[in-house]
Amino acid sequence: MASSLSTTLKFTLQHFSVTLPPLTSTTRRKISVRCGPRSNRGPLVKGRILSIEAIQAIQALKRAQRTDPSQIEAQVSKTLNRLIKTDLIAAYKELLRQDLCDLALKVFPTVQSECDVPDLGLYADMVLALTRTGFAEHIDELICDLEKVGTIECDDKSLVRLVRALVEGEQVESTVRVYELMKKSGWGSRFEIDEYVAKVLRRGFKRFGKEEMADEVDQQLQRSSRLV
Question: In which domain of life is the source organism classified (predicted)?
Fold first, then answer.
């Protein structure tokens, strides 16, 4: 019986064939999705998230500007004075990011009042924003206010940002004022001359046709180099 079953199985296998479909590799297509900005605004400052209080202050200022501009000063006093320094500066920078320079100018005195010495980086941010948005006529007034402070920290790394912003914005008088303020504050005597700041000033004065000032900066730089 076993022999008969084996013979039958062999016969069946010889006459039965199974065709298997060829193995194919599955090809996966990758679709790249790019997310672009929804407006021309710059990105938020990396690592900085606006607090709820800062957002509410910005919204209050924008609402006052839209409905009753005469209330902006009152809103600045009411909302911004409650913010801690980091939130106040973050709100100020967000206004600049949104190109709301008119509001930022209202906020700026409050921001600077929180600083023991003039924050040159915040001045540089304002100069760049005013130049970018076509409100450069306010820059001279801004620098005049800085001049009234009396002195600045010439070893502040933001000094070069401010000088570059003024030179690139073709702000001749403001550049001269900042240079005179630097000398009054001890640049070249109490503070060591930064070579890069000196080169930016020298190129700027040459561009503005202020050859005597360019030569003066060059002489100060050479004198400083000999002392090293």
Answer: Eukaryota
